[in-house]
Amino acid sequence: MSAQAVLWLVIVLLAIGTYVLKAAFLLFATRWTAVPPSAETALRMLPPAVLAALVVPLVLWPQGVLQPLGPRALAAVVALLVAWRTRSYLLTLVVGLAAMLLLQLFV
Amino acid sequence: MGTPGTRDGIRATMPLLAGVVPFAILVGLTAVERGFSILSAVGSSVLVFAGASQLAVIDLVDRGVPWIVVLSTALLINTRMLMYGAALGPTLADQPLRRRALGAHVLVDFVYALAAIRFQAVEEDRDSRWGYYSVVGLVLWAAWVLGTFFGALLGDVVPPHVPMDFAMPLMFMSLLVVAGTDRATVAASVMSAGVAAVTAPLPAGLGLFLAAGAGVAAGTAVSLRSGA
User: Fold this and answer.
1) Distance in Å, alpha carbon of B121 to nearest chain A alpha carbon
2) DSSP string of A76-88, one letter each residue
3) Contacts of residue A29 in chain B, CB cutoff 8 Å?
């Protein structure tokens, strides 16, 4: 299967799965809202945990090689500070890309 | 149209577009940069409408990760939407089925956040409540789809020396900072990041699940211990 075909397959299945997640309570169980507190806590931890697990390899292991002080890792530290201080997607993106461009020249 | 809810909904949505549209543009741009079609970029925004998972899918499919791993990862990212439905369910229970069916599709982070605040703060009739919810949801959806399309068209225009492949981790980091609202969620991300740093060379997907699992465990432990 070509990458494009795999992408379509995942998009269609993900669309169905995501709709089920969104709709489960709205359509079928509007009165039943008792998610157990422990399950709710674990659910709340999923997005930060999955996002962190996605970011770190992209930043520390570019092309599968560990580069803890490479331009990506350093630019990521800068971007993380900007994200934390400003909470702005746009500023994080712009400053992060600029830092990456500069660091590629010097590191 | 014309309920107080519709008018307030439009007013509440406009400032959010500044955050949503650049993100949508990035989704379209990244898809095309990685060699995927404009149609599939826009299609994912129309059908899936859940930004972080869409970006993750583009990246993982491009890196040749097996589709079942890609799908599971994306669904894990979106599991939080189950909670949104549970939280808003009681307030939307009196809406007709077709409204709830449409409303479910646009139930994303921003829509949940705005609607949860609105429904707590304002007493209003059924149609006004639906007016608010549907306007917020449909405007954000439309902006998301148009932004993706625009980004996909821009894809070929970005000069090659701009490291656009770095845009994806940058966007994930901004989302991560927003998701880290208390000690437990911060613990979840730090633990997951630590494990991911070590497990990155493992076969695609395995490291991700180990890291995310460790993160969820750590965050839940911190949350239970602090009694939150």
Assistant:
1) 20
2) HHHHHHHHHHH--
3) 89
> Which tokens hold the place of B30?
């990244």
Residue B166 DSSP code: G
Shortest alpha-carbon distance between residue B210 and chain A (Å): 9
CA torsion through residues A76, A58, B80, B119, sign: positive
Of B90, B97, B133, B111, residue with least CA distance to A27: B97
C-alpha B41/C-alpha B95 separation (Å) is 32
Contact of B16 with chain A, judged by CB distance below 8 Å, is answered with no
Among candidates B80, B27, B202, which has minimal Cα distance to A51? B80
Res. A72 pLDDT band, cuts 50 70 90: very high
B38-47 and A3-23 are packed helices; what angle lies between their axes, rounded to 10 degrees? Answer: 10
Interface A:B, Cβ pairs < 8 A: 295
- Contact between A80 and B220 (Cβ < 8 Å): no
d(CA A57, CA A74): 14
Residue A107 — pLDDT band, cuts 50, 70, 90?
A: low
Which ipTM score applies to this complex? 0.85
pTM of the full predicted structure? Answer: 0.81
Q: Which residue of B has its CA nearest to A85?
A: B177
CA distances from B79 to A43, B18, B75, B83 (A): 7, 25, 6, 8
Q: How far is CA B1 from CA B7, B59, B130, B173, in A?
A: 8, 40, 10, 38
Across the range A16-27, mean pLDDT stands at 94
Residue B24: which of B151, B201, B214 has the closest Cα? B151
Average pLDDT value for residue range B146-164? 87
Q: How far is CA A38 from CA A35, B112, B228, in A?
A: 8, 21, 10
Residue owning tokens 């399309």: B149
